[in-house]
Amino acid sequence: MNTSPDPLTLKLSLREKCAYGMGDVGSNLMLSIGTLYLLKFYTDELGLPAFYGGVIFLVAKFFTAFTDMLTGVLLDSRRTIGPKGKFRPFILYASIPVALVATAQFMTNGFELPVKTAVATVLFMLFGLFYSLMNCSYGAMVPAITKNPNERAQLAAWRQGGATVGLLICTVGFMPIQAMFNASSSLGYLMAAMLFVTGGLCCIWWCYSGVKERYVEVMPAHHKPSILKSFCAIFRNPPLLVLCIANLCTLAAFNIKLAIQVYYTQYVLNDIHLLSWMGFFSMGCILVGVLLVPTVVKRFGKKQVYLGGLILWAVGDVLNFFWGSSSLMFVLFSCMAFFGTAFVNSLNWALVPDTVEYGEWKTGIRAEGSVYTGYTFSRKISAALAGFLPGIMLTQIGYIPHIAQSEATLLGLRQLIFLWPCSLAIIAAVTMGLFYKLNEQRFAFIIEELGKRKKHLSPEPEMKKENKASAVTL
């Protein structure tokens, strides 16, 4: 008699959930310093035009979109799984070059403008390459940790909580540390970066040592992973495709907001130190939202909570555009918008593992790496656009560093930080509301069907017929 616990009801320990969340604390300590401050470092310290900064983001992020795909191929190609597991070794070994390159990006040099631009681009591309190996493995690991959908939602909440803590620490702490080096602001950037990546490494290693891969599955020998198949994993998986489109909008909106807020607080509100306070309160609201995710998802379902978060986000941005010209109102409405983003960003990660089972149910092939990196491909394209657009728009609205900005430039900053993200959030809400069909009931049915298939091994042709018939009904 089989006495092994039911994978759908197996509970994870609090210690393991905490360890998993620490992985995104570490990832975001190393990533967010670039998301928040690298463009400003380029324009104000390295002396690059804002347009050049935007192009660097565009080129490097497009490059890392494909490195994400290569990571998926590498993960799915593994046939021999050692005691460290299928995903955990990449988390451990790639974290060191991520930390080194993240620090090197904040080093100034006396090269000519073309050489400066080339060096900055190469460093950003290297960061993206190693970050893909580390972070894609971290995200793709969830289906190997648990099959329980509620536990996956909790892991997603812990992950988003970790990401929020990392982002909060960077938002609140980076500029005060940088400002301690008044004699050399460029040295301040470098020292702050070194401090944050060191903390990031410790968190990543905590994650590596604290999580366990329970359901590691090796892809059949006849299935050869490739970048083309990673793209096919998106287009043959309707829930994943819809999620990619929605995520393309939400991540671009979120990153644009983060990149522009340092300019907004300095030139529109005339108080760059407000950034730390705003980060403290708004990221605190995200953390509260993340803690609520498991409860509200259990009651209302993932899709409904996702849409509710997008509505809060859009309303907060609209209110900020019209009435956020004072520091108090800016912080208040930003808290509302960021509270909404907590549900959206958390559920992005909770929904992806569900599409892994959908893809296995439909095609008969389980490919965590291809599904996850197909999804992260859309995130990197989104991040490329989010990095490119602020650089281009700063040039278009007439931004010049270290001077008082014109009224037209100030209006442009307000549009960039509020109206663009609001519009993208609305597009994401419409996309998810109309086209995402993988609800909790259908997911439970899929898991049950997969369990039956594995117990009663059906002939390959019959399985394909069943897949085709099932795909019509979903």
Structure description:
The protein is mainly alpha-helical and 474 residues long. The chain has one domain: Up-down Bundle (Growth Hormone, Chain: A). It is built from 16 helices and no strands. It has helices spanning 14-44, 50-77, 88-104, 113-140, 142-145, 149-179, 185-210, 227-235, 238-268, 274-300, 302-323, 327-363, 368-396, 407-435, 440-455, 460-473. α2 (50-77) runs antiparallel to α13 (368-396), α9 runs antiparallel to α12 and α12 (327-363) packs antiparallel against α13 (368-396). The protein is globular and about 70 Å long. The relative contact order is 0.15.
Q: Can you count the beta strands? A: 0
Characterize the largest beta sheet: strand count, sense, and whether it forms a barrel: none
Which whole number gives the mean pLDDT? 83
**CATH-derived topology:** Growth Hormone, Chain: A
**Judging by the overall fold, what is the CATH architecture?**
Up-down Bundle
CATH class category label: Mainly Alpha
Q: What number of domains?
A: 1
Number of helices: 16
Ends: how far apart? 34 Å
- Order of H and E elements: HHHHHHHHHHHHHHHH
Nearest-angstrom radius of gyration? 22 Å
CATH homology group: MFS general substrate transporter like domains
Q: Proportion of β residues?
A: under 5%
Poorly predicted regions are 458-474
Structural class estimated from helices and strands: mainly alpha
Helical fraction equals over 70%
Tell the overall outline: globular
